[in-house]
Amino acid sequence: MEYDYGESIYQIIPPKIVPPIKPAMHRSKHDPKTPPSASTFHQRGTTHPHTSNLEGLHPEKPVGDRSARTMGSVPGTARSCPTAYLKSKAQRVPALADIKRTNPDILRPTVLSARLKPAVPSRHETPIHNLVTSKNFVMANAVEAILSTPRERGDSGKDYLRKEDYGKVPKYLAHIKRDIQDEFDYIRQLQQREEDAHKSLAMPLDELERLRLIEGLKAKWEQLNTAYQGTTHLTKLDTIGKIKRKEHHEAELHQIEKDIEKLNRKNIIVDATC
């Protein structure tokens, strides 16, 4: 074990540094281009199993690489070459004046389109002047109209006044009227059935039942009247309950009196649907 005792005379001269010997680079005995075993990188879109090259015996990939399929191109392939740039005057475009001077045939069109309008007359083509006619167009038109014969109307060969169904009602109108009448008859039958059903449910009230109802209403009136008479001595209704109770008794008594008055009539018809 070595100990550092600080400054020492034996450490004044630094020791000679011996560079380490670099071992030789390791080179595998296996082919670097051999695909990996049990790989799943090239299974999408193929008919191979889920994993490939399980035994590691494939010298090449079971499915070849496809450029720019999933991971994209190799980095740096889209980079431009630093020496292949456009240099000055490397691709000079000739001017129009130079083309007209050196090679004017290039500017001529190969196919000429047809002219849609007539050409403009030149300044040397002088039109004819002072062309005057002595014809009176008003008089000529009047004479032509007077002497002209009426135009004959072309014979169509069909006389509509002598048709077989002239003056008769069309058949389709008779069919429409029949359909409308059938609908009216059907609606009338439905209304008649409804009226008959209501008539069958309406029956006269039995006399014994009428008297029994009157007696029940009178007994109820006596009961309500007794309760009402018990509150008539109160001359001052100072609470809402007393006011509501009095109004309720008066309304019920009035309704029972109206019902008794209706039952005292003759020929009372009872509707069973109500």
How would you describe what is shown here?
The chain has 274 residues and is mainly α. It has a two-stranded antiparallel sheet. Helix 4 packs antiparallel against helix 5.
Provide the gyration radius in Å. 62 Å
Q: How does the overall form come out from the CA principal axes?
A: flat
Number of strands: 2
- Main beta-sheet annotation: 2 strands, antiparallel
Instruction: Output mean pLDDT.
Output: 81
Structural class of the helix and strand makeup?
Answer: mainly alpha
The percent range for strand residues is under 5%
Distance between the termini: 122 Å
Spans of 5+ residues with little confidence (pLDDT < 50)? none
Q: Which series of helices and strands comes N to C?
A: HHHEHHE
Strand order of the largest sheet: 1-2
- How many helical elements? 5
Q: Tell me the helix content.
A: 25-40%
Secondary-structure map with pairings?
Layout: H1 96-102, H2 137-147, H3 171-201, E1 202-204, H4 207-229, H5 240-263, E2 269-271
Antiparallel strand pairs: 1-2
Helix pairs in contact: 4-5
